[in-house]
Amino acid sequence: MDTDDSEHPADRSGSSDDDESSTEDRSSGDLSTVNEGTQSTLDTESDASEADTTLDSESGSQSIEEMLLEFDEQEGLIRERTLLDPNYVVEEDRIVGRDDQLQEVTKMLRVALGDNRPPNLFLYGPSGTGKSLITKAVCKNISQICEPRDIRFGTIEVNCQDLDTLGVAVYELVSRAADEAGVEVQVPKHGVATKEKWDELFRIVDENFDSLVFVLDELDMLVGRRDKQDPAFSRLLYQLSRAGADGELETFISVVAISNDTKMMESVGSRALSSFTPEDVHFGDYDANQLQAILRRRQDAFYDDVLDDDVIPLAAAFAAQTHGDARKAIDLMRVAGELAEREGDPRVNEAHVREAQDKVEKNRVLEVVRGISTQKKLCLYATAAVAAESNSGAARSTTGYKVYQFLTDSIDADQYHQETYVNKMKELTTYSLVDFERRSHGPSSGMFLEFQFGESPATILETLREDSRIEMVSQDEVASVVQAQIRNEG
């Protein structure tokens, strides 16, 4: 049977030693002794209570209730927190620097308003450049226009980053489609063939929608099982686009594939490519001025006159260093505001933004490295260690590989060949954590890749050292090896 290709991790159960205690019943025939003991106990408890009260008073500690009430009485700095959520679909007049992309996506999806199927789209570009925002904003407006026209228009949005296999992805689409339609799913998540999940998805779609747009964010992350010829995202595109194009359904289906990887379509199989045939829309980096404009359109998230003048320019400058990432700029503003509120400060200032930068950067790195294998962590650690010591802040693949060899030898881990090391580093580019360029320093040196980091190499190293195996390796020894290899580069 074509069984669900999701992987079920084995259940693990641990045992712990239970603390055993025995009680001894003690009795006394002398009632007066019992009464005296009771009175003595009460006196002792009273003394202890008075002592605790005195201690609390002396230490100035507050109860949970007191702290909550005190915070409730404080005047906050943030008035509308939804505006500081990068996933919140803002009004059209708050969308900045994406007029061309907004017009293209609108023109192509607007045919859903009539009796036509919208074309499939491929939106690509670095993270935080407005791909998801534009798609959601256009679909939201189409839905509002369709409602009074009795056109059953729907949008199914799925982020593929945490979906392991095709079976898991299809069931996620089933679940989202059922939620959108307000109906129950009639197949279980596990234990059935993936085909049954497809059948359930198309049943829900055909019975409840006239036109439907599937928005597949970070689609390139859906790789699936390695034993399949095509990646899972290719097979997903094939099934969705074929169902929408060959008349199997009465519902008009359109697929919007979103990716940070500009070369994702090169990995799509020939069958999927012939049925998907998307219109491409490129999203470039925001520059610092555009990021400032984006933040100024959201500064009414704060109360009037609580932002220092240098807060928005500084947050925009930090975000511009990371591929012009608007998500990061908005996150920085939110975290800076929350830090100021927690500290009881009356205004958000430069110090709060700088502290927020450190926090957001580390959280983003943590989010990435928690989900990658030990081998990828070793590749990343070796490369970041070289970048941290080099004058350019970049790392040659040849040098990084030698440091990687030292790390694997140090912890007695399996060691990949250099080509595999390079491929592992290339895979990490999909997280926007690292990028690379092909370089050559003359005919005698040959070609190599040079890796640059979107986040501080020092932050990456610090985060990776939370892995117990990497922590075993001396930082001084790693630095010594890196410096020796950098000297040999010349």
TrEMBL record:
Gene3D superfamilies given in the database record: 1.10.8.60, P-loop containing nucleotide triphosphate hydrolases, Winged helix-like DNA-binding domain superfamily/Winged helix DNA-binding domain
GO MF: ATP binding
Keyword set, alphabetical order: ATP-binding, DNA replication, Nucleotide-binding
Basic and acidic residues biased stretches: 1-15
Residues annotated to bind ATP: T129, G130, K131, S132, L133, Y286, R298
Cited SUPFAM superfamilies: P-loop containing nucleoside triphosphate hydrolases, Winged helix' DNA-binding domain
The keyword Signal appears for this protein: no
Record has Chloroplast as a keyword: no
UniProt biased composition (Acidic residues): 44-55
Pfam families linked: AAA_16 (PF13191), Cdc6_lid (PF22703), WHD_Cdc6 (PF09079)
Domain AAA+ ATPase: 117-287
Polar residues: bias regions: 31-43
Any one biological process term the GO annotation gives: DNA replication
Region (Disordered) location: 1-62
Family as reported in the entry's similarity comment: Belongs to the CDC6/cdc18 family.
Function, in words: Involved in regulation of DNA replication.
Protein name stated in the entry: ORC1-type DNA replication protein
Originating organism: Haloarcula rubra
